[in-house]
Each structure stands twice: as structure tokens, then as C-alpha cells.
């Protein structure tokens, strides 16, 4: 780990001091978990945790130990999802081991049945076999066949049980995977999901030569709106933008919230014109929705977004494509907000605005 500069060191101590003050002010116990949650909040290291802390303290005036534990496990401790994944994986392995044991048993039963049939065949081929001996052989064959049939029915029943159990475990693993990639506030993809899908889209475009576009949007004056109407209403705004994005794109398109009020749309097999159409559709749809405060029914007016669009260029990485889309979005803000700017705009024009 690199050494901190003097300024960084001083800032870290200030963050720590402020975290301790907030722990005391909001009646949180002085535990390592509590310190980790409040330090992360003060330093602004996790926007989702920050928003949740603001909401909880606004609602209750305190942050209880139970709330601290929930925040830590949800946003800071990856062990919860890891333990659920490990438990499900171990369950699958246990079921597979049982299936292998059942198959071994079935193979052994089949081998014994085959040996019995061979023995019966040899007995029947004997020159001195009489009618009574034939009846004995047939009776033994019937008993052995019944035993094999019973074993097979047991095996089928256990296989069905194992199949159902494995399907349940598979669903558990899938639920854990989805949860780890989902923004809990808006229900769309989180930063991890966004970064994974952006890398895949860029790599695919580089190999296949197919176009991909990235749309980045940011809510205008969100901090001011948040401060004016409260964090619960701010959460409502974030959900509204996410819902509008979901309604405006095709199902195979990736949408995500990867910052506080910053969202992304990854558009595979999409050219600049189509990407701008999607961006404009989202922008006008967000602007066309009147925001109403749920608790009072008060109209809070309308919100707007600034949007940047970047088109994949040969040699682009996920980072360079995102940086260009971000630059276009900030250009849109500096140009007056509530507009779409794409990277087809001349560099001189964007630099003049910047």
C-alpha cells in the first residue's frame, strides 16, 4: 500500500474524527462495524450507503446497532453473499455425491442381476433339468426381477428428489448472483454490473466489429433538490429515472446506476443516430413526468437530466469509452443542462464549452 501524503493523512484523521462525532450524535455504539459505516459515510466512499444513512437518520434521528449491522453486511461486508454462495455450492456438491452413490448402487444391482440371469441361463441349458427345476428357476427369476424393479423405483424417487434439490440450489445461486449485481434502491444494475457489461460490450465490439454506444446521464441540480425536499424524495427521483430508463430501452440493453445520481445505458449493435434517439427519449420522458411528494401530494415540479453519448472507436477500452461519454455529459451540463451531447461534436466546440 502506498504511503499517504501529508494532506491525505490529515484528511483521513479528519474523516475519522468526524465519524466518531457522528457515532456519538446518532447514538451508535463505538464498535469497529459502526466506525467502518460512519467513516465510509463521511469519506463518501459508497454512495448507496451514504443515501441509506441519510434516509435512516432523517426518519429516526438515530442509527441503531441493528441498523449499523444491516448497513455493514449490505454494503461493506462481502461475506454474507459469499457465505450464501458457499452454502448453496456445498449443497450442490453434496447432492452430486449422493447421485454418484445412487448410480454406483444401481450399477451394482444391474451387475448382480446380469450374473443371476447368466446363472439361470446355464441352469436351463443343463441336459438333466426337469420341470420342477424350471419352476424353481422361474420363481427365482421373478423374485430377482422384482427386487431390481423395486431398487429402480427407489433410485428414480431419489433422483427426482435430488433434481428438485439441485434446482432449488441453482435458484439460490442465481438469486445471490443477481443481488450482487443489482442496485438495491432502484432495482436496476449496480456499478459492478455496469463495469462487467461495459467490458464485455467493448471486447465484443473489438472482435466482431459491431458498433456499441454508451449513454451516460446525470440528474440536473440533484443535490439542491435533495437538500430542499429531503432524501426520501431524492430516492423517489432516482427510482423515477431508473423506471423511465427501463421503459425506454429494449430488454437486452444494459441499464445501471453506477454513481449517486449518475446512470448508464449500454447499447449493443447501435449506431450514433439510434443512440441519440434513445438518449432523447429518456431525457424527454423524464422531463415529462411531474414529481409528486407521496406524503403530502404536493407537486414538486419536474426534473431534467443531462446526457452524454459516446460511440465505440477502434482501440477504445471500457475506460476510454466511459471517459468520453462522461465528458459529453459534462459538456451538456455546461451548455445549459437538459440536453444530449454526443462525441460527434467537434473537440473544439466541447473544449470551448468546458
From TrEMBL:
GO molecular function list: diguanylate cyclase activity
GGDEF domain location: 210-345
PROSITE patterns associated with the record: GGDEF
Coiled coil listed as a keyword: yes
Catalytic activity: 2 GTP = 3',3'-c-di-GMP + 2 diphosphate
EC number per UniProt: 2.7.7.65
Listed Pfam families: GGDEF (PF00990)
GO biological process per UniProt: cell adhesion involved in single-species biofilm formation; negative regulation of bacterial-type flagellum-dependent cell motility
GO CC term, one of those recorded: plasma membrane
Gene3D superfamilies the record matches: 3.30.70.270
Record's keyword annotation contains ATP-binding: no
Keywords noted in UniProt: Coiled coil
Coiled coil: 152-179
NCBIfam families, A to Z: GGDEF (TIGR00254)
Protein name: diguanylate cyclase
The organism of origin for this protein: Methylobacterium indicum
